[in-house]
Design brief:
The complex is a heterodimer of chains A (144) and B (55).
Chain A: E1 8-12, E2 20-21, E3 25-27, E4 32-36, E5 41-42, E6 45-46, E7 52-63, E8 69-77, E9 80-84, E10 88-90, E11 96-106, E12 113-119, E13 124-127, E14 135-143
Antiparallel strand pairs in A: 1-4, 1-14, 2-13, 3-12, 5-6, 7-11, 7-13, 7-14, 8-9, 8-10, 8-12
Chain B: H1 2-9, E1 22-26, E2 34-38, H2 48-52
Antiparallel strand pairs in B: 1-2
Classes of the chains: A mainly beta (144), B alpha+beta (55).
Amino acid sequence: MVSGNMPAFSAYQATQQTGISATTWTKITFDTKVFDTNSNFSSSRFTPTVAGYYQVNGSIQLTGANAAYYVAGAFYKNGSSYAQFTLANGNTNYYCQSTGSSVIYFNGTTDYVEVYAFGTALGSWSAYNTQTGTYFNACLLRAA
Amino acid sequence: MLYDKIMALYPSLTQQDFLTVIKLQNDSDGKGDYIAKWEHPTLARPTEQQLDGVK
C-alpha cells in the first residue's frame, strides 16, 4: 500500500519541442508538472528518492512528417534504452501517438528514467504538445 | 542532419537498420545528434571526416 509521501509525478509537454531529427532517438522534454509529490521530477527526468518498484507510463505524439511513417517512444533508464513503446503508424491526416508502460526498479539514489522518441521519414519532427498527447508519469508500487 | 549524411554515405541502409544495428541519438542538451551505437555487420562506422565531407 502506498502511503505518506511516496513518490508520484505527472508531467506533460506544454512548450512544443521542434527540430527532432528523423530516425534519431531524441529525449523528449516535459516542461509542465501536474503534480510531483516528492519533488523527484526535474529537467524531464524522474529520479525517485525512495527505492522500490515503480509503474512508469509515457506517451509521445509527433507531427511534421509528410509521408507514411511510424513513431516509437522508449523509456531510457540511466541513459540506456530500457523498454520500448508501441510502434505506431501514421499518415498525413493525423498525428502519430506511441504509448508505453513498464514496471521499473529504482535504487532511490542514482537511478533515473527519461522518455525518448524516434520517428521515421525524412526531415524533422515536432512533438504535439498537449497534456493528452505527450505525457510522462510514474508512481511507487512497492518499496524495496 | 546526421541521418541524411549517413544515408548519403551508405544509401543501402534501411530504416530497419536504424532501429536495430545503428542508433542515432540526441539528448536534447544542445550538443546535437550523434551515433550512439554502430553494429552494422558489413558497413564501417563513418568517421567524422567522412561525415564532415558530405554536402
